[in-house]
Specification:
- The protein has 28 helices and three strands.
- With about 625 residues, the chain is mostly helical.
- Helix 8 packs parallel to helix 10, helix 14 packs parallel to helix 18 and helix 15 runs parallel beside helix 19.
- The chain starts with a helix and ends with a helix.
- The model has no long low-confidence stretch (mean pLDDT about 85).
């Protein structure tokens, strides 16, 4: 009875602030008390943490959490469930029958770790960020009293939080809790399954605790391979069924966990304090059967899902981590490669992913090049002492310069990964197929030509920023990867025709020859690759000439036969609910980015498109008539 009563006054204890809000001093348990209580409960839990047969006695439901008369208010009534839409209020009935001691101990320990250790680790992370920010802003860090006080607080909290026995017990609990969630997942088909009602923080606590240790105290994970394997299986299972986890932020944390904990340091440019030698659990991404079957597909879906749910500051970081995980999986053997091919066969979902990938690549490179130009201009200005001294807005310029550098560094981390992903995905003949679909092929050509315009122009390989390595700006590698993407489609005439029809090809007619000349000059492609790129340049030029000749032959085309957006003769017209007629590929491409009628802005789905056979027949009759006239003239 005592333990639940110690939980009750602490609903506000879980806070990310570096120091607890003073509003609650005297009303909640102290940090030290909750840490000590957590340690005591972990010791009490040892028998079932160390022996799975005893852990199997934990009830596979969360009715104890909902039974206030059993836990005496330790769990508030308003805890966010894992899946609110699927949670049946009727299933929240009080626990039926006796709740054994092991079950009570298990759930109360979880709650105390949430309020104590996990909460304090989150505040410690924010404290470290705060110290880092002050250190960079301070004119004299060695004598900064505020910085000194915060560092004293840092060392004090490290002593209490990083006790080996405490962290060892916490990781044992993580493994047991992950295995319990897997047992609960096994009940999800039952109408009375408690899985949707499980408090969301149960899963989030396991992720946050393990990820913190991987980043800040990696030695604490030594000897925890079995527990980390259980957590891996749990996270992959939840990630593979996104409908089970309502929060997109929690799903994004799954990807962060896989990156920080399970990806070896050699695959992470930002490894920091991570262990420099591979740990046993870091083979799971490559070798675990569930990962080989489900993980690549789950990560590709998550990559697309973060677009609508994460803010502009979170999204690049999460997507960069996902991209690096996917790159690792791509190179991890035929089992994973087969998974990528299977995903590509799921045409609709893969086309959406590919479209998002290309949109992001185009947007990132445009933003990067614009800001790099600004960075270079400020660097040049500061090199001229007289001009810089005469500059009246030095503070504003420096502030904007620092923000530009932060933005470029973040965007380049992701931009380099997206360009690389496009190159390695399109190297596979099976994955090339969806990229050649009429609704996505024009987007592919627009992306590669748009990015080429920025890379081989004055803002590209020739731009000279002083800190290119620090910013991770590698324009020659970007150009080589982009050219390889083009080369992968060299065998396809439809790709050459799409290049020739692209607006960038007409506004920059010398773009492809200039790119070819640049890669030859820089020696960044093999001789065989240069030969294939020459083939694309030649074939695209021939396709452009053929298209121009055909357009001249068509002469005046009836307006009803032209796609209203691209102004090209339709070959596969479809009718919208509004009565407008468009080329099928044009409207499908539009709907990938905007599910509204482009003319009326009413919601529009692919299923609402109807074949415009009458228009198609008229176009065919018109072409036949023109051919008869031309034959007669000859």
């Amino acid at each position: 009875v005592y333990t639940p009563h110690t939980h009750k006054p602490n609903p506000h204890k879980h806070t990310p602030h570096p120091t607890p809000p003073r509003t609650y001093f005297g009303q909640v348990s102290s940090d030290g008390f909750l840490l000590n209580l957590g340690f005591v409960l972990l010791e009490l839990s040892k028998p079932f943490l160390e022996e799975q047969t005893k852990a199997n006695l934990i009830r596979t439901d969360t009715k104890f959490v909902a039974a206030a008369e059993r836990h005496y208010g330790a769990f508030p009534d308003d805890l966010q469930p894992l899946s609110p839409s699927a949670a049946d209020p009727a299933a929240a009935a009080a626990a039926d029958g006796d709740v054994n001691f092991i079950t009570q101990c298990f759930f109360l320990t979880w709650r105390v770790l949430h309020l104590g250790l996990v909460s304090q680790l989150a505040r410690h992370e924010n404290l470290l960020r705060h110290i880092n920010r002050i250190h960079h802003q301070s004119a004299d860090p060695a004598n900064d009293l505020q910085l000194s006080r915060f560092m004293q607080q840092q060392f004090g909290t490290m002593v209490s939080l990083y006790q080996p026995a405490l962290l060892s017990g916490a990781m044992a609990f993580v493994g047991t809790a992950a295995r319990w969630i897997m047992r609960l997942l096994g009940t999800r088909a039952n109408p009375d399954s408690q899985l949707p009602r499980m408090p969301e923080h149960f899963v989030e606590d396991l992720v946050a605790l393990t990820m913190h240790l991987a980043i800040y105290e990696p030695h604490a994970l030594e000897g925890a391979s079995s527990h980390l394997t259980s957590l891996f299986e749990c996270v992959v299972a939840l990630l593979s069924e996104p409908q089970l986890v309502h929060s997109p932020h929690l799903r994004a944390k799954f990807a962060q966990l896989l990156y920080h904990v399970y990806l070896a340091a050699e695959h992470k440019p930002d490894a920091g304090r991570a262990m420099k030698f591979a740990q046993p659990h870091q083979n799971l991404l490559q070798m675990h059967p569930r990962a080989q079957v489900d993980l690549a597909q789950a990560l590709l879906k998550l990559y697309g899902a973060v677009e609508a749910h994460l803010d502009v500051y979170e999204k690049p970081d999460v997507r960069c981590r996902i991209a690096r995980l996917l790159k690792h999986l791509w190179g991890s053997g035929t089992e994973h490669r087969n998974t990528f091919q299977r995903i590509a066969a799921e045409q609709e979902s893969f086309v959406r992913f590919a479209n998002g990938l290309m949109n992001e690549t185009n947007s990132l490179v445009a933003n990067i090049m614009d800001k790099l130009t600004e960075i270079r201009n400020v660097q040049v200005l500061r090199q001229d002492a007289a001009k810089w001294a005469a500059e009246p807005n030095q503070d504003d310029l420096l502030a904007r310069h620092a923000e530009n550098e932060r933005s470029v560094k973040a965007n380049l981390s992701l931009g380099n990964e997206t360009i690389h992903m496009l190159a390695y995905l399109t190297s596979d003949s099976e994955i090339q197929k969806p990229f050649l679909l009429p609704e996505i092929l024009p987007r592919l050509t627009t992306t590669v030509l748009s990015v080429l315009t920025k890379l081989v122009g004055a803002k590209g390989v020739n731009i000279k920023v002083n800190n290119a390595e620090e910013l991770d700006f590698r324009p020659q590698e970007m150009l080589a990867e982009l050219c390889r993407t083009i080369i992968h489609f060299a065998p396809y005439e439809s790709f050459h025709a799409a290049i020739a029809a692209d607006g960038y090809y007409h506004t920059s007619p010398g773009l492809l020859p200039k790119a070819l000349s640049t890669v030859k000059k820089l020696h960044i492609l093999t001789a065989a690759e240069v030969e294939e790129l020459e083939r694309v340049v030649t074939s695209s030029g021939a396709a452009a000439e053929a298209a121009a000749a055909a357009e001249a032959e068509d002469g005046d085309v009836p307006e009803d036969f032209l796609d209203p957006i691209l102004c090209t003769i339709m070959t596969d017209p479809v009718r919208l609910p509004s009565g407008h007629v468009m080329q099928r590929a044009t409207i499908l491409q539009h709907l990938l980015n905007d599910e509204h009628n482009p003319f009326t802005r009413a919601p529009l789905k692919v299923e609402e498109l109807v074949d415009a056979d009458d228009i198609k027949a008229k176009i065919a009759h018109w072409r036949e008539s023109r051919m008869e006239v031309e034959t007669g003239l000859k």
